[in-house]
From TrEMBL:
Designated name of the protein: Phospholipase, putative
PANTHER family documented for this protein: CALCIUM-INDEPENDENT PHOSPHOLIPASE A2-GAMMA (PTHR24185:SF1)
SUPFAM superfamilies per record: FabD/lysophospholipase-like
Motif GXSXG in this chain: 45-49
GO terms for MF: phospholipase activity
InterPro entries named among the record's database cross-references: Acyl_Trfase/lysoPLipase, PNPLA_dom
Start and end residues of each PNPLA domain: 8-209
Motif DGA/G, residue range(s) on this chain: 196-198
Any matching Pfam family: Patatin
Length: 231
């Protein structure tokens, strides 16, 4: 194709990711296709933005379904009905290092996103969009970006950022939203410790440009749409 690369980046922002979805819905009205993920060549998201990226980029979920998923996850994580009392929360933080039940969150994400690996979603879900979810590698100092990707590189164009494409998609969702204090970190099979991507790149636009140059060497960028979540 002679056209340049189209990139979409989605900031972190917790429950404010519903604003991200509203912006994407408005943008869709001006696009030639109804699936916004299919319009972009690369979608990169951080934290709650990573959840949206996984939905529209890897699983081809409609925006309305992504909105429902975001609400469900917000309720599962932060609803007052399921919350512990203040003393119990303090005890959980002191003993387990987490304010909310990470195991329950992991199970909820597994039910929503399924157990496919990132790279398997490309073939099994029919997505041609490249997707990267930003997390933070925190067992190094200072923390570094760690990207879960649904793509691999050619031998001549490696990324400067560590990452993985074989991890189950729900683990990627859990990792990018593992905000310190709120949820426990995710520990990979090789011992690397992963937490919320907002620790290193709440706005992942610069990471996306780097990745695009490696995935599509020699191709110019037509547009980069960076969607924030307000202040």
């Amino acid at each position: 194709s002679s056209r340049g690369i189209r990139i979409l980046t989605l900031d972190g922002g917790g429950s404010r990711s519903l604003l991200t979805i509203a912006i994407l819905k408005a943008l869709t009205r001006y696009l030639p296709c109804h699936q916004i993920g299919a319009f972009f060549d690369l979608v990169v998201g951080t934290s709650a933005g990573g959840l949206v990226a996984l939905g529209i980029g890897c699983l081809n979920l409609p925006l309305q379904m992504s909105s429902t998923v975001a609400r469900e996850i917000s309720v599962a994580a932060f609803s007052k009905g399921g919350a512990l009392g203040s003393i119990e929360k303090l005890v959980r933080i002191l003993i387990k290092g987490e304010k909310h039940d990470s195991r329950a969150m992991t199970e909820h994400l597994r039910q929503v996103y399924g157990e496919l690996s990132m790279v398997d979603t490309t073939a099994l879900c029919g997505s041609t969009t490249k997707v990267a979810v930003v997390t933070a590698l925190t067992n190094v100092s200072p923390p570094e970006p760690f990207l879960f990707r649904n793509y691999t590189y050619g031998p001549d164009s490696p990324s400067r950022y560590q990452g993985d494409h074989s991890v189950a998609i729900y683990h990627c969702a859990r990792a990018t939203t593992a905000a310190p204090v709120y949820f426990s970190p995710v520990v990979l099979h090789d011992g690397r410790v992963i937490q919320d991507g907002a620790l290193v790149a709440n706005n992942p636009a610069h990471l996306a440009l780097h990745e695009a140059a490696r995935i599509f060497p020699g191709r110019a960028v037509d547009c980069l749409v960076s969607v924030g979540t307000g202040r």
